[in-house]
Write a structure and sequence with these properties.
The chain is mostly helical. It has helices spanning about 1-20, 30-55, 55-60, 65-80, 90-110, and strands at about 25, 85, 120-125, 135-140. The chain contains five helices and four strands. The radius of gyration is 20 Å and the shape is globular.
Length: about 160
């Protein structure tokens, strides 16, 4: 339940940003944004996998670019389902879906599936890790009970912790 609420809050945050920055997308109040984020999350969870499978040949031929049109279609669909959430045209839906995906991806990277972030950057050779001196190794974990990760170097200096 906690993971669902975190995902929903991430979607709400991304949708508020999209409504603020993309011309042609608006919401009349914050409750509308919350309902639209919930509707978009449910559509992406249940309908998107089916549509992706059905349009797999087009996705393969377009090297995955057709997925952008699917995302924009779902964004536009949510504007037709949720009263008060307006998307003027398909161009606005396309750019809104693109920005929504980018913002929610960034927020999910930092929050992780359980709402916990554990991202470390190491530089230099690491025991059991990379053997090259000038390579920056990035290790990320979202497991809240783990300290240091499985492959974290004991003697390496972390840049960000």
């Amino acid at each position: 339940m906690k993971a669902f609420l975190i995902k929903w809050l991430v979607n709400i945050t991304a949708l508020v940003a999209v409504a603020s920055f993309v011309p042609g997308i608006s919401a009349d109040k914050w409750q509308t944004v919350a309902v639209a984020a919930l509707a978009l999350g449910l559509i992406n969870a249940f309908l998107r996998p089916l549509i992706i499978r059905l349009t797999l040949p087009l996705n393969i031929l377009s090297f995955g670019l057709f997925t952008f049109l699917i995302n924009a279609s779902f964004f536009y669909l949510v504007s037709r389902i949720v009263p008060g959430f307006e998307v003027v045209d398909f161009r606005s839906a396309f750019w809104g879906a693109l920005l929504f995906s980018f913002i929610s991806f960034i927020l999910n990277v930092f929050l992780g599936p359980q709402g916990h972030s554990d991202l470390r950057f190491y530089r230099g050779p690491q025991p059991g890790g990379n053997k090259y001196k000038d390579v920056i190794d990035v290790e990320g974990s979202s497991d809240s009970g783990r300290k240091g990760g499985d492959s974290a170097a004991k003697g390496a200096k972390p840049w960000i912790k």
